[in-house]
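Hey, quick one: can you model this chain's 3D structure?
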Amino acid sequence: MRIVVTGATSFLGAAAVKKFLSMGHQVYGIIRPGSVNRAALPQSAPGLKVIELELERLPEIGNYIEEECPLFLHLGWDGSGSENRKNPAVQQKNVKDSMGALLGAESLGCRRFLFGGSQAEYGRGREIMEEDSPCSPVSEYGRAKLAFGKQARAFVEERRANGLAGMEYVHARIFSVYGPGDHPWSLVNTCLDTFLQGGEMKLGACTQYWNYLYIDDLINAFCSLLFHPGELTGGGIYNIAASEEATRPLKEYVEEIHNLCGGRGSCCYGVLPPNAEGPADLRPRIRRIKEACGWEPEISFHEGIRRMLEGKCLPEKADNSRM
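Sure thing. Here's the predicted structure for all 323 residues.
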């Protein structure tokens, strides 16, 4: 299969590209011109073609790819950091650029367009989050992801109704993902680095319920949606998260990381303010993707952190035998 991946050097994008290549697919990785993260992608892979293209030029993608591409994974999205999540200009541009990606995908004969949405679309949930739950995003980032999803579905439905295209739009609402390749300033990576060095981890209250999904499980979910034979059922929106049983107070996740780091370092709670979305509970339910594709997560948080520790340099224990 030929697959286009935008945002190919991002944490999620690079992992998806590597997975698709390992499966023997042809991948077109769309990256920002002069991207400083180019090294996140394989430097020499026969199935990979890297194309440097600004997001606003995605409608022109057919000028760079001469073959039909049945599958399109759209992860390119500016301003995912905390501050730009509040910036309406940045996020509104993302919506416009993503509609351009949809046009570009259509020009390539795309049959299935998978978009990386976000749990931020739900807002500050306190109840179980299902795909048909009301969405009340509190950040510009969440509003933009939700707005694009609505516009994209309307566009595709109109095109299909008029017999102009046969593309299927799939919206993946992604919850908190961790694993190798994530930003060094993510909570999981910061905890690991701080604890391993015996430092003090300063945190917010961490009383909110949270749900962490390992990167390999997320990419397998992408595969289950992209390569599913025939039309997908379930309304086109799918939560991608760990199981309901994995949902627990964020503090418990932090304490588990601390224990897996051998109890090094310490935690100080209630010091930092909440993030751009404010205090939120994540209580996702993933029944829809399980029923439609048979996907479910396989890697526990304990196992995921153990795998991440294998790639970390553990400080040597002091030799007290001569003291």
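One thing worth noting: Confidence is low (pLDDT under 50) at residues 317-323.
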